[in-house]
């Protein structure tokens, strides 16, 4: 939603690219910061309640966006919205992992993660034709009835008790020292972060680059982002299935390698609209396809009692770093040098993540469920 409405927000409030990048950073930084405490506390209040709280609260914030009158107030609302959105993820992923065996976990994560690009495609097609007519504020109202409906359905249909009731665990059973001392988990943070730096950079700042540098209309930009999400859906299901069959580390390496090739092509190849459509499809395939694989791998490596905590940790550290620095750095480099060369930043982090994943595979650090 924010990626397509951002050019109109920038125009209304007369923002620089750096300020626009700051809005994206605030939303995702808040989302990341809350994941670790949300993951920790959901073990005691229940994953079901955490999900309902997140979705219902986000719907309320989308109503408040309608009344924004300044850049600072919008920034504040987006930060609070990020807090609600971030509460969902550790509990949502944990519920998926608990209900599917390891052999099916990659595919089950694909279904879960694909809901995001499916929703974005729906929003893109609606926004592309409506945003100029009704204005960017009213686009957020589309999320309100959906959020209320999901909250109600989740309350009625999902039967879940907290881990406290199911396993009689206590606060002291989460050994944070053991989690932080795990070499595998700490190394996995690097490619996880690298992938999301690229997501935040290429996918979220890409529309701004297309509209301001190449003067692509908002409806066409929305179509490009829809194509990217279609690629993401295909990539998620493909990568999730292959990771169940051939091993998650190997498929993760393949996905990051594809991303690296795509980003460097995006930077140095001459611009054309056809190539842009192709590249954004490929971005979706590799960048979003990486996510269910890495989340399934993290779930494989963690015990059910600590899974929401570990997923929250990855969200807070990995997403936090990518959200805090990427849009602002790219916006700053775009203002200072050029928008195209600014994408070297995510490209180089992908190379680093690829090196670390290759090291993990060569040293066989990942646990025995991996198929070498």
Itemize the secondary structure elements and their pairings.
Layout lengths: L1 H12 L3 H29 L1 H18 L6 H29 L2 H33 L1 H4 L3 H15 L5 H5 L8 H5 L2 H30 L5 H29 L1 H21 L4 H28 L6 H30 L2 H4 L1 H20 L9
Helix pairs in contact: 1-2, 1-10, 2-3, 2-4, 2-14, 3-4, 3-7, 4-5, 4-14, 5-11, 5-13, 10-11, 10-13, 10-14, 10-16, 11-12, 11-13, 12-13, 12-16
Question: What do these coordinates show?
Answer:
The chain has 372 residues and is an all-alpha fold. The protein contains 16 helices and no strands. It has helices at residues 2-13, 17-45, 47-64, 71-99, 102-134, 136-139, 143-157, 163-167, 176-180, 183-212, 218-246, 248-268, 273-300, 307-336, 339-342, 344-363. The longest helix has 33 residues, at 102-134.
Alpha-carbon distance between the termini? 40 Å
Largest sheet: none
Counted beta strands: 0
Mean pLDDT: 81
Strand content: under 5%
Query: So what's the overall shape?
Result: globular
What is the structure about, briefly put?
The protein is built from 16 helices and no strands.
Task: Output the keywords.
mainly alpha; about 375 residues; disordered C terminus
